[in-house]
Amino acid sequence: MAGERAATLSDVAREAGVSLATASRALNGSDRVVRPELQERVLAAATKLGYTPNANAQAMARGSTETVGLLVKDIADPYFSTIAGGLADEAEKHGLLVMLCNTGGQAEREQKFLAALRRQRSRAIVLAGSDTTDMGHTREVADLLTSYLDGGGRAAAISQPRLPVDTVVIDNHGGAKALAERLVGLGYRRAAVLTGPEDLLVSTERHAGFAEGWLEATGSKPAYVADEFSRDGGHRAMSRLLEDGPEADCVFAVNDLMAVGALAACRQAGVEVGKDLAVAGFDDIATLRDVTPGLTTVRLPLADIGRLALELVLGEPSAELRKQSVHGEVVLRESTPPRS
Amino acid sequence: MAGERAATLSDVAREAGVSLATASRALNGSDRVVRPELQERVLAAATKLGYTPNANAQAMARGSTETVGLLVKDIADPYFSTIAGGLADEAEKHGLLVMLCNTGGQAEREQKFLAALRRQRSRAIVLAGSDTTDMGHTREVADLLTSYLDGGGRAAAISQPRLPVDTVVIDNHGGAKALAERLVGLGYRRAAVLTGPEDLLVSTERHAGFAEGWLEATGSKPAYVADEFSRDGGHRAMSRLLEDGPEADCVFAVNDLMAVGALAACRQAGVEVGKDLAVAGFDDIATLRDVTPGLTTVRLPLADIGRLALELVLGEPSAELRKQSVHGEVVLRESTPPRS
DNA sequence: GGCGATTGGGAAAGCGCTTTCCAATACGGT
DNA sequence: ACCGTATTGGAAAGCGCTTTCCCAATCGCC
Q1: Which of A35, A136, A297, B6 is deepest in the core (most CB within 10 A)?
Q2: Which B positions 98-157 lie with beta carbon below 8 A of chain A?
Q3: What is A131-169 written as a DSSP string?
Q4: Does the global pTM surpass 0.85?
C-alpha cells in the first residue's frame, strides 16, 4: 500500500475517462460548467482512488495559498494563546490554515519566520507582540513586511502601530489611565507601578497611561520598579518594592501575570492584599480570574482581538493604513477595595 | 514596485549568466559542487533581485515540505498552549513551520483539518487532545491517519494510545493513583472526584486511577460528580457536591482548571479549602501556581511533552508503534494540608 | 433551414523549482 | 602524447495542478 503513490488528478481523469481539464473543473466546481453526468463520473473516480488534491501544486498553479501566518512572542503565554484561539477560530471559518510562529521575542527568529512565511506565499501575516522600541529591529521587520506586501501579501499587526500595516490598536494608554482614575476614586493616594522592560511597548504605554491618569487626579507621580514582563518579574519587582518600604497604598502591575507574581510576593511578605495594599493588573486573563483576592484589572477582549486582526488582514485592502481600536474595561475586584 | 512580480530562480540565473540548474545548485549548496566564482555570482544576483524561493514550488519538485501539523482541542487552554509552546520551539530548531489546528473538540473539524494537512503534504502531524471514547470518530480519524501514513506522512499522538501511531503516553492513571495514595497518607478518608464528560479519555483515566489508588488504600470508593472539563464545569460540580452535603474531606478535580473552579465554588459557599476541605487538581498549569491556597496537583512536564511528540514524529520510523511514557509528579501544596 | 451565438470538452501552456542525464572540459597515469 | 576518469555546467524532463485557447457540437432565431 505504501507502494502505490498517491493518486493524482491525471489518475482520476483517466479513471473517469475525461481530460485533465474536465477533471479539474468537475472537482473545483467553480469557473465553468461540466455536464452533470461527467461531473459525477469524476467525483466517483476521485473517491474510488482516494484522491487528495496537492495543495502545493494548487498553490503553484493558482498563485495563492490557503494559509495565514501568526507571529506571537510566546504561545504558552495566556495573553497570546487567547488571541491565537480567536484568530484560529476565525481562520477556520474562512477555510484557512494558521502557521504558528513562536518568536520567543527574539528579533532574529522573528525575521526568520517572516522570511519563511514569505517563501510559503502565505496569504496573510498577523504579528502579535513584537512591539519593541528597538528601532533597528522595527526597521528590519518593516522592510521585510514591505517587500512581502509588494509581493501581494497582506499583513496586520496587533497593538504595535509603528509598523506600516493595518493594525488592531489596543488602547493600553487609555485603559491604564482609566484604571488609575478609578483607583484614585476608590481613595488611593500613593501608587507604584511594576513595569516591564523599557523597550517593550505595551509595558511603557500602560505605565505612561497610568502615570498620566494618576498625575492628573492626584498631582503626584507614581513610583515604579521595572523587571521582566512575567510572573517572576512581578514577583521580584514587588519584593524589591516591599523591601524598600512600601510608600504606596496601591500597586499597578502592567499585566496580570506580573500582578499575580506580585500577589505571591505580598503573601510571602505577610502583606495582605486588599487590606494592607491594593494590587491591580491588566488583561483579565481568564485562568487568573479565580485568584484570591480577585484581581482588579483592565479586561481586554483578547479572543476578539485575534478575530479582528484576521478580519482586518483579510478585508479589502485600502490605500491608507487602517487602525482598528480596541478598548479595555476596568474590572474592579477585591484586590482594590474602596479605601475607607 | 507592486508591478514587478517576485523574482524567480530563472531571473536570478539570467542575471548571473548561468543556467537554471547551476543557480539552483548554488543556492541550495547541497547535492553538487559549483565553482566558487559562479556560486558567488549567483548569490549576488539573488540578493540584488531580492529573490525568495517559492516554497510551494520547492515542495512540488522535492516532494516534501517543511511543515508539521498540530491538532489541539483548544489553544486557549493553557494545557494545550504549553504543549504547543514546547512543540513550536522544537520545530523551530528543525527549521519547520507549525500548522496550528484548533479543533474545538469537534470531530468534524478534526477530520477537516486532517484532510487539509494531508493536502498540504505536511511532513508530520501531531495530535493532542482528541482522545475521545467515541469509537466511530476514533475509527474515522484512524482511517484518515492511515491513508496519510501510507502517503509517506508521519504522525504521533499525545496521550491517546488508541490511535495507530507513535504516541507520547501520559500516565494519567498512575499520576492520579499516586495522588490518591499521598492524600490518604495525609490522613484523608473520604474522597470525591470532580470528573469531566465520560467520553473524554484523560478524564476517565484520571478518575479511574484515583479511584483505584483510593480503593486500595482505604477500601472505599470515592464518590464523583461529572461536568464539563473546564473551570466552569469544576465550579458547577463542586457546587452540586456541596449542596448535597459534603460527605468528603477531600476532593480531586481531574484537571487544574476544574480544581480552580471548585476552589471558587468553595469560597462562595464559605467552605475554607485547606481547612474544611482539601482540593487537588492535575496538570500543574503554570499560571495557576499562585492561586490560594496553593493547589496540590500532579505536575506534568507539558512543554517537554510537546517537544517529545515532535521528536517522536520526526525520528526514524520504526516498524512497531512506539510509546513514549511520561509520568507526572505529585506536588503537595496548601490545599491539602496533613490532616490532624 | 441556415446562420451566428452558445456551450462544454480537450490539448497544451505554464506556475517555479529540482534533478536526472549529457556533454564538455580538466586531470591523472603510463 | 594518449586514453580513461573525474569534475562541473547546461538542457530538459518532470512535480500536479489551473486555465487559456481552440474546436466541435448544439441551440435559437428570423
Answers
A1: A297
A2: 98-102, 104, 109, 115-121, 147, 150-152
A3: -B--HHHHHHHHHHHHHHHHTT-EEEEES-TTSSSEEEE
A4: yes
